[in-house]
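task queued by scheduler; priority normal; single chain, no ligands, no partner chains; default sampling; output format set to structure tokens
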Amino acid sequence: MHITVVLAVGLDSWQLTSQGSELRSAGFVVISANSIRDAIEQFKVGDFDLVLLGPYVSAEHKERLTSLIRTAGSRTPVVCIPNSSGDCNSFEDGTLQDDSRALLTGMEEILANTPRAQTVPVILCDDAADGAAHR
């Protein structure tokens, strides 16, 4: 049985904790990152089935992280929970609602339609993350 590992990225610690608890109770292993820099570092060393970008991550950071993941050759699905202005971009593989049931259903659908790739080394390089890690 495969264990699904999710990298949850968010800038609001309460939201990350709450969302992480919900996902863990549904059987997911959740690694949380509270900055883009932390997300990049976690992605470099982890083997993730899905990357979840929270509603408080700026559109610029969502786009940068997704672009880095794709440029590195990873096919890991990247999904976004939009904020009130709907700031998800075209790089993500899906947009999910910040409602427990809808979030879990959406993640399961995306994971079911994504072939599990073999683990390959992923090299991410983002010099711009230094100055923008904690905005």
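post-processing summary
- Helices lie at 13-25, 36-45, 59-71, 100-112, 129-132.
- The chain has five helices and five strands.
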